[in-house]
Amino acid sequence: MTSTDPLARAALAASRFGLGARPTTLQDIASDPRGALVEELTTGWIRRLRGADLVDPAQAAATGVSGSFTDYEGINRAETVAAFNKRVYAPVGFFERLVMFWSNHFNLSVEKASLVRAMRGVIERCVIRGLATGRFDRLLIALLTQPAMLCYLDNQESIGPNSLIGLRRGAGVNVNLAREILELHTLGYGAGYSEGDILQMAYVLSGHSYVRGWEADRNLNGGSDATRGQYIFRSDWHEAGPRRVLGRRYTGREGQLTAVLTDLARHPATAQHLAFKLVQHFLTDAPTPAMVDPIARAYLDSEGDLMQAALALIDLPQAWTLPQTKLRTPYELLVAQARALNRTWHDDDLWLLLQILDALGHRPGYWETPDGYPDDTAHWLSPNGLRVRGDGLQKATQILLARAPLTLPPRRLAARVLGPAQSAETAAAVRSAADPVQALTLLFMAPEFQRR
Is the whole model's pTM more than 0.90, yes or no? Predict the structure, then answer.
């Protein structure tokens, strides 16, 4: 049954849709938990991420194709840390969760290439943040023409066999990006597309590339120092002529890709696929049509407006009644821990934060395959996984407490961040702990803190 306790609804909003409560969060949003979630979607300063050491996309791309490891890893690390700190101090964290969701949906692995390592975090900050509550076709087009995405899924040398360059070189298309667009990014696996559709999509994508470092150095293939690492459409690499994808005919050259992606974004199968994933991420590992269909309808009725999909998600009756069975991912857990302690990581200790995320198997950008980190509880729930969580949380607690003393005793902090969700067992364990580190580690390992 839906709780009428304002603090209980606030605690649910902060954990299910946010990134965990800070010491004052539950009191701050108790009067209108849903309103607090909506406010995050529409307030500029909450959405923006800025920093003096964060570079623009053009600089990141140029560094990715021509810089040293120190340079492009420095960009990657700065973005990872800035995003983590932004999430620690977000009012609730709903918008941050959406950014994380879409970033994982369009996964990029920094292990693929230096360009991806340099650009993954920059894309999240400069593209996904700006479009996470806009129309999905705009997000889709923007991300699939990013140099890092073209590199990650091997489209940079996808050449139409009958194009001018294809005939000269005897080259052909690469279907990797085409397959993932249909299977992962839009329609979803088993949504009725064929191998023929994948090939036609690959022809549409032919010629969509980026300027490699050597091309910029030698002014080849449209490259120059000014376009180093930038997206480029090479018309003489493109498989010209009309294409047919999912039974619809597309003409033109460069605009062909935009037309196909726009139609894919508005396809009913895409609406179902994205709605299912949103419910799976935020509510349950077993979405039902009663949960998925209202979000899919809101999405289709608004021509793919992700704001309307997010609002439909938090307006589901089940969003406020289902038990909290989803396990926080390790990354979410470390953010929630820092939020509960109301502090973030000192620059000197950031390498330890990344080391802990590595140990927990959830460092941003390190999932190698395009499907992104798994979103089901079973993947993260194992005896060894829980042991490593405990070790990681204990170490993180020691580091965070070493920088500044607690302003609240652990028992009061537990009451503040868990509210009515705190069990009698957790309260007793925290009270009886031998020292603050043990008390807080027990709090962070408690089921009501681990679950969302």
Answer: yes
